[in-house]
């Protein structure tokens, strides 16, 4: 169920990917290629993105597992939801209230610099690396996926969550690479406006999950297995 949720989040949010990552997708060195080689290059680039997402899911799934083992899985879900809502608030303030925030950008600047060099080189064998680096760039949709991966509470589920999330973004990103010249700036800007809605839905889902309401799939009781496991451990 959680993998389907992740896939649908990626699929629904993939319009945002086209809006935000579209410029990079349009400069990926595949436009001069034809037929199967062009599609192979596009898939190679996107495979790099998804591999980065999988590694991020593994890392944050592990962090979520440590919190879960400490007995704070419920609070982890609530915290993740609140962080997403706070991020939406910051985005609103920076966009509509002209608030300027200076975030640490040394790592991002290094990634962008190396990414730029690879894009200028226009070499087929660098497409996977370009995708890997693109997956490391700041993105609200990826942050949403990371929050979901951490809330799964296990390494395996965290990695699967982000892999499914990346697979959900694949159709739109492949289309952007193939038909990118047909996407105007206005269309990409309209697509970009969808992401706050997706982040808000994900935040609400995480908050409900952490509230332990006993609603199957949406807000299951996270600790209902604990007493049984404790009893079994106490048997001689």
Automatic annotation (TrEMBL):
InterPro entries: UreH-like_TM_dom (IPR039447). It comes from the Bacteria. Coiled coil: none annotated. This is Urease accessory protein UreH-like transmembrane domain-containing protein. Signal peptide: none annotated. Keywords: Membrane, Transmembrane, Transmembrane helix. Residues 5-204 form the Urease accessory protein UreH-like transmembrane domain. The keyword RNA-binding does not apply. It holds the Pfam family DsbD_2. The chain crosses the membrane at residues 6-30, 42-63, 75-93, 127-146, 158-182, 194-218.
